[in-house]
Amino acid sequence: MLSLDLHPIFRNNRDIELALRQFLFKANHSGEPVAEIIPGKGSGRLRARVIAFLDQKHIRKLYVRREVDTGNTGRILVYFQ
C-alpha cells in the first residue's frame, strides 16, 4: 500500500497541495487498489484540508472513494479502481 505522511510539511499549504496531487497521480497509475494519506490526529484541521482537497471535482475523478479509517482517525484511505 502506498502511503503519504503529511507530518513533515503540515505548515506549508503549497507543499501540502503539491504533495497530495503528486501522490494521487502516482497512486492512480501504480495499480494499487488502496493508498493511505496520514494527516495525523491533532486538531483535525489538516485532515479537513485533505478531505476538502480530495472532494474537489477534478481530483475526485482520480479515485473511487475515500474514507477516514475508523480505527485511526489520523489516516485517510483512498480507493482506486
Keyword list:
81 residues, alpha+beta, 4-stranded mixed β-sheet, 3 helices, 4 strands, 21% strand, globular
Structure characterization notes:
There is one protein chain. By secondary structure, this protein is of the alpha+beta class. 40% of the residues lie in helices and 21% in strands. It is built from three helices and four strands. The protein has helices at residues 13-30, 45-54, 57-60, and strands at 2-5, 34-38, 65-68, 76-79. A four-stranded mixed β-sheet has the order 1-2-4-3, with helices on one face. α1 links the parallel β1 (2-5) and β2 (34-38). It is globular and about 30 Å long. The two termini are 14 Å apart. The mean pLDDT is 95.
Summarize the SSE layout with pairings.
Layout: E1 2-5, H1 13-30, E2 34-38, H2 45-54, H3 57-60, E3 65-68, E4 76-79
